[in-house]
TrEMBL record:
<feature type="binding site">
    <location>
        <position position="608"/>
    </location>
    <ligand>
        <name>Ca(2+)</name>
    </ligand>
</feature>
<dbReference type="GO" id="GO:0006508">
    <property type="term" value="P:proteolysis"/>
</dbReference>
<feature type="signal peptide">
    <location>
        <begin position="1"/>
        <end position="21"/>
    </location>
</feature>
<keyword id="KW-0479">Metal-binding</keyword>
<keyword id="KW-0732">Signal</keyword>
<dbReference type="InterPro" id="IPR015366">
    <property type="entry name" value="S53_propep"/>
</dbReference>
<feature type="active site" description="Charge relay system">
    <location>
        <position position="547"/>
    </location>
</feature>
<dbReference type="InterPro" id="IPR023828">
    <property type="entry name" value="Peptidase_S8_Ser-AS"/>
</dbReference>
<feature type="domain" description="Peptidase S53">
    <location>
        <begin position="230"/>
        <end position="630"/>
    </location>
</feature>
<protein>
    <recommendedName>
        <fullName>tripeptidyl-peptidase II</fullName>
        <ecNumber>3.4.14.10</ecNumber>
    </recommendedName>
</protein>
<feature type="binding site">
    <location>
        <position position="590"/>
    </location>
    <ligand>
        <name>Ca(2+)</name>
    </ligand>
</feature>
<dbReference type="InterPro" id="IPR036852">
    <property type="entry name" value="Peptidase_S8/S53_dom_sf"/>
</dbReference>
<dbReference type="InterPro" id="IPR050819">
    <property type="entry name" value="Tripeptidyl-peptidase_I"/>
</dbReference>
<keyword id="KW-0106">Calcium</keyword>
<comment type="function">
    <text>Secreted tripeptidyl-peptidase which degrades proteins at acidic pHs and is involved in virulence.</text>
</comment>
<keyword id="KW-0964">Secreted</keyword>
<dbReference type="GO" id="GO:0005576">
    <property type="term" value="C:extracellular region"/>
</dbReference>
Length: 630
């Protein structure tokens, strides 16, 4: 303790002394090659404030996982017996000795407990938040962690992040700190949207006759022929056999949509969409939950910028005319997610985290790690929507493995609370969606620069349900449907049988060295992904992407949850063990099409599970019977 007091004394005299006089041996904790497509712009401004999360080991996570396995297995007696907020918190809390060790270390550097916002759960069992008055700026972190935060710019989209390629920690903290982020994490939450076409006249006009109907082989349902060109709410309800269902548990059941970046959903666009496609829902609305400065019109970070005179630094020059305009990703997700499940109450989670600034400005980009912010927020809530869809992701390899695992564990915790999580599987097929070997971009980030298929994260996390894409009626796999095998997460038991069966069907040596045969395979399921008619900034537009598939599939899951809750049963929670036990029952198997990428034709859709469309698209009435039975 004496040494410690001295240490603090020195700290007060001169911070520079600390590193050289540090009593503890430092150990390099992470060191990465500068990631592809990011260029180093130099030192980050030392006065910039950065919220760092220090994640402490969750020594009881295996227990949580065991609970999750049991309560998600429809043949287990504990099926649906979800854990409470308090139970989950106890299972993901760090050990008290770790908390003490970290506090002691930080206090030694003059960072008092009041500057730390300790999250009860989630990703950062201990969060470092700059509180309003006690900000911890970069210069300080540079010294404590003995690295240098630098500005990095993405060569293609111009994003600027403050990151480092390595960091060190005192060796005695080895067992007490799992990771510190955002430091070496260069991923962003990107909307999975391949295309946005504006079209003032409905594409339904392209169709032969608006009264013609298509009978779908397999499920035998009939669908308006216009749905082959343009997808609407009623198209999906017909195609997925849910057009007779009326939600009943609307006081208990909720569906959530998450939004990242500068995206926010627009109420007026939603009303126009409802008038066009869901007349009964006109004048109904949804809740908005703001997390971490998430933006809702007008976005809080913009207010802040106006006040601090940084207004002009917003790339693209937002002005007062478009300050309250919508993002197309958010509009799409909200309109279809809430439209299909209406009148089920909807909640939109707006997580801030990536306003863009010009790099030369003295206050550069925001520096958050998106999923951690959201997880901290949502796991602290008492009531969580039973179904949540996210249409954002990035290449798995851009997320450091330890962080990916930690975030994924956070999703497991949400599953244990009884929430079904759906994520878009990605829009690049097995990688970059490019069949041309000359222009492929599937290179590893690890300094070796090998060609490899690149699965997306968070879809590759085994505790979420990854949703791929289809097109046309009868449905075929859409050629951008993200699929493949995780390089981080091993294949879970519940998936083993289906995936090994698929792998055995591949000709020997297929894509040798390009993918991990033992990895968690995606997607799990799929839904339509092309030409969704939405309203965007007041006008009809058509959008495509697995961004459309995830909220749509989620809406049908919300209706399944409705059916169960209305009968006094629990919500479905983590879906994958159930989905794989059904072995295709309740799904329309998609057996044609493939999703190219990385200079290859990619994998093929085939009978049963495949890494393009998973088990296929939902047959709601059949699934409803099944889930009411378990
Ligand atoms: C088919 O869709 C068109 C365009 O949305 C609509 O005008 C027509 O009434 C629909 N027909 C049937 C039979 O649902
Ligand atoms: C739907 O469109 C696709 C692609 O144009 C076509 O192959 C298919 O035959 C159409 N379906 C019907 C039922 O006309
Ligand atoms: C929706 O609200 C507006 C304004 O209050 C009202 O004029 C309109 O009749 C309402 N529409 C429906 C379908 O309830
Ligand atoms: C905002 O509007 C201006 C012109 O009115 C346009 O140049 C700019 O691209 C818009 N910004 C965004 C983010 O839509
Ligand atoms: C996917 O299909 C679209 C539309 O048919 C086509 O324009 C595109 O080139 C295809 N992409 C690849 C990678 O084959
Ligand atoms: C990786 O390899 C490809 C093809 O060999 C090359 O075009 C690219 O420049 C390399 N990238 C790096 C970062 O070395
Ligand atoms: C996909 O199907 C084509 C045509 O049947 C076949 O040539 C190819 O080997 C298959 N690819 C894979 C990865 O299964």
């Amino acid at each position: 303790m004496l040494a410690h007091t001295l240490f603090r004394f020195f700290a007060a005299l001169s911070v520079a002394v600390i590193t050289s006089a540090s009593p503890s041996v430092l150990k390099l904790r992470q060191s990465i090659a500068p990631p592809r497509n990011w260029i180093d712009l130099g030192r980050a401004p030392s006065t910039h404030v950065i919220p760092l999360r220090i994640a402490l080991p969750q020594h009881r996570f295996l227990e949580l996982e065991q609970h999750l396995v049991e309560i998600s297995d429809p043949f287990h007696e504990r099926y649906g017996d979800h854990l409470s907020k308090e139970e989950v918190e106890a299972l993901i809390a760090p050990h008290a000795t770790s908390v003490d060790a970290v506090h002691e270390w930080l206090t030694g550097h003059g960072i008092q407990q009041e500057s730390c916002d300790r999250s009860s759960a989630a990703i950062g069992s201990l969060c470092m938040y700059p509180l309003h008055r006690r900000k911890i700026c970069l210069a300080r972190w540079n010294r404590i962690l003995t690295f240098e935060f630098r500005l990095w710019k993405h060569t293609q989209d111009g994003d600027v992040l403050i990151r480092t390629t390595e960091y060190s920690l005192p060796a005695h903290l080895d067992d007490h700190v799992e990771l510190i982020q955002p430091t070496t994490a260069f991923h962003r939450a990107k909307g999975q949207r391949t295309s946005l076409h504006f079209s003032p006249t409905p594409a339904a006009a392209l169709s032969p006759s608006s009264d013609a109907m298509i009978t779908v082989p397999g499920s035998g349902v009939t669908v308006n022929a216009t749905c082959n060109a343009t997808i609407t709410v009623s198209c999906l309800k017909q195609l997925y056999n849910a057009d007779r269902y009326i939600p009943r548990a609307t006081t208990k059941n909720t569906i959530g949509i998450t939004g990242y970046l500068e995206q926010f959903a627009n109420f007026e666009d939603l009303q126009k969409f409802y008038a066009d496609q869901v007349p009964n829902a006109v004048n109904t609305s949804f809740d908005v939950a703001l997390t971490n400065g998430g933006c809702y019109p007008p976005p809080p970070f913009l207010f802040e910028m106006i006040i601090t005179g940084l207004w002009n630094f917003y790339e693209g020059g937002l002005n007062s005319q478009n300050i309250s305009q919508a993002g197309e990703e958010a509009d799409l997700d909200v309109q279809f997610g809430f439209g299909i499940s209406s009148p089920t109450p909807g909640r939109y989670f707006s997580t801030g985290g990536r306003p863009q600034f010009t790099p030369d400005a003295n206050t550069p980009t925001d520096t958050n790690e998106p999923y951690s912010n959201w997880l901290d927020f949502i796991l602290a809530q008492k009531n969580i929507p039973q179904t949540i869809s996210t249409s954002y992701g990035d290449d798995e390899q851009t997320v450091p493995k330890d962080l990916a695992r930690r975030v994924c564990n956070g999703f497991a915790a949400l599953g244990a609370r009884g929430t079904s999580l759906l994520f878009s599987s990605g829009d690049g097929g097995v990688g970059d969606g490019n069949a041309d070997p000359a222009s492929q971009t599937c290179f590893t980030n690890d300094g070796k620069n090998q060609t490899k298929f690149l699965p997306g994260f968070p879809a590759s996390c085994p505790y979420v349900t990854a949703v791929g894409g289809t097109v046309h009626i009868p449905e075929v796999a859409v050629n951008f449907s993200g699929g493949g095998f995780s390089n981080y997460f091993p294949r879970p038991d519940w998936q083993h049988r289906a995936v090994t069966k698929y792998l055995k069907s591949l000709p020997k040596g297929t894509y040798a060295g390009l993918f991990n045969h033992n990895g968690r395979a995606i997607p799990d399921v799929s839904a339509q992904a092309v030409n969704f008619r939405i309203f965007f900034r007041g006008h009809p537009a058509h959008v495509s992407g697995t961004s459309a598939s995830s909220p749509s599939f989620a809406a049908f899951v919300a209706l399944l949850n409705d059916a169960r809750i209305a009968e006094g049963k629990s919500s479905l929670g983590f879906l994958n063990p159930l989905i794989y036990k059904l072995e295709g029952e309740g799904f329309n198997d998609i057996t044609t099409g493939n999703a190219p990428g990385c200079g290859t034709p990619g994998f093929n859709a085939t009978t049963g599970w495949d890494p393009v469309t998973g088990w296929g698209t939902p047959n709601f009435e059949k699934l409803k019977e099944i889930v009411l039975d378990c």
